Structure formats: C-alpha cells, structure tokens
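Working notes for the structural subgroup meeting. M.R. asked for a predicted model of this chain before we commit to crystallization trials. I am recording the input and output together here so anyone reviewing the notebook later can reproduce the run.

Input as submitted:
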Amino acid sequence: MPDKEINTRAICAMSGGVDSSVAAALMLEQDYQCTGVTLKLYKDGSVQSSSGCCSLADVNDARNIAFSLGMDHYVLNFTDEFDKYVIRHFIETYEAGATPNPCIECNRHIKFNLLLLRACQLDFDLLVTGHYARITRDSSSGRYLLRKALDEKKDQSYVLYCLTQQQLQKSCFPLGSLTKNEVRKIAEAKNFVNASKNESQDICFVPDGDYGNFIEGYTGKTYPCGDIVDLDGNVMGRHKGLIRYTIGQRRGLGVAANTPVYVAAKSTAANTVTLASEDALYSKSLTADNINLISCADLKKPLRVMVKTRYLQSAQSAVAEQTGEDILHIEFDSPQRAVTPGQAAVMYDGDIVVGGGTIL
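Returned structure, recorded in token form:
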C-alpha cells in the first residue's frame, strides 16, 4: 500500500464486481478515506447488456457495497468518452482489418486518464481499482514499476502496460498479492452481495460475443461479402464481411477443405479473407507502434525479454529493439502462432513489465 502520510484520500473505482468491492474494503482497513465511483459508459439503448459490467444491476451492487462500508458513492457519466475512445476505436480497428483489445483502450483513455484526472481535480490522492497487478518503485532509478500479480492465473498486467509513470504514481492495486479465492473469502466474510458473482468473460459492450452483429448494429452499416481464397488466390468460398474474421480463426469459416484451415490474412483493399494450413500462421518477428515503456525511458540497446502477444498467452522468449521513437521490433526465439495486428505485444523482465506497443 502507498504511504498514508502522503496519500490519504482515495477514489475507488467500483464496477459492481467482487474484485473492486474487496479492493475498496482493503483500503478502508488501511485507514484511507475512500469514496466509491461507478462509471456510466453506455448511452441508454446503445448496448444491450445485462450481464457485462456497468449494467443497472452492477451499479446497484456497487452502491450497496459502498454504503455497507460507510463510503459515499457516485456515478460518473463517461458515455461520450467511452464511445469516442473505446467503442469507436474497436469498430475502426476491425474496419481496418485488425483485431483490437478494448480493455487496454479503456484503461488507457478512461480509467487511468479521464477518471484519474477527475480524481486529481477533486483533490483525491489515489485511484484504486480491483486489477490483479502490483506497483513498486525502483530505488535506484526512482521509476515506478508495474509487476505481475502474485497469482499469475489472474494477472492483468498485460492490459495495464499503457500506464505512464504519472499514472502509476497515483494508482493502487490492493489485490496484487491475493488469489481470487482469497478475494472471495474476504467478500464472504463481509457478507458482500456479490461475493459469489460470476465474472464476465466477454467484452463488456458485446456480452454475447458476436462482434460482427454489434458493429453493424452500432454503425448502421452493412459490410460487404467477398471472396475467401487460398494462398494461391484460388476462391474457396464467400465471407460475410471482414469484421467477422480474425487471424488464426478456424470456426465459422463456411468452407469445405480436406485438412483444417485457418484465417491467415485479411485484405481490406481486395475485400478477401485468406485461408491456409496452421503452418502458415507462424511468424518469427513483429513490429509494434504506439509504444509505452515503464521500467525504462527507452531501449538504448537490444534487450532480451519475455513477450506476450495475447492476454491469455504464455510469455515467449525474444529480443526487443527500439528502432524508432515510437517503433519496436521484436524477434522471437521460436516462431509464434497467429501474431495479430491490433493486439498488444507486452514485454516482461521476470515479473516486471518493461512496456509494450500495438502490433502492426
């Protein structure tokens, strides 16, 4: 926990889930002066969600927990900002043929930018969230470090790589040293109404997981069908719009083949989806932009790191080199499957997040 003599007033972001509720309770136990906030992120009727975060039931759960803890609770309206920075980015990335990670954009623009700015304007010292990650400070360099949670099964450092030094200084993750089971036990001991609440496994604004239908419904557009081709350009079938496909996809392709085939590439110019055998999905290197470095200001020379190119992927050994002010080149020791444009490449040195960027 941060030094209470310096940081005493905390805004606790409360989604209505068990993690953020327990995070707030732990801060109160450390004698922080806490206020709960829940974010309204969807315009009424724009997202059909009753199970993802930010539903009316979630707001009520957050409010009930806050009041049971003796905390004030407020709802902040960030619908326009969420639409601009998260939903629109999600749609535009799919339209450009890539595959976005909206949780990263929400952290980058909403929680640790706009909400943190609001907290500072109201003279709060800390923003507290229920993320599973840890923040420490390097005594030699003075830099704040983002580290993996002790429970690697729940670790969320991948979606937090975008945090800056200023944001890390003002943030607190009380759950970083706990397991999910321990968190639920704390909630049960406090009789929280959400102690056994299920976690959402989908993108919060697409609770049924059908990205194509969501994008068409949200934009009012119809995305044209086109050819599904093999590596030689031979037509194998018709696709239902590029937004419905991602690199490495096998199911729902609608083509007959003698051997398993996967989406190997998409072309927005030709409006084609290219299928190939699994061997064609592997690549030895990647380039990323929109980079953010945490453990250092820049990479002055090639650095041996472990790299994740997807949230649930195990980190893979590689060498990273900063080839421009906002460009990373990563060379893997062994070829990696389905490295996908639009996802994040996040670098680790042990449990410390070196930084990352968006895969080009």
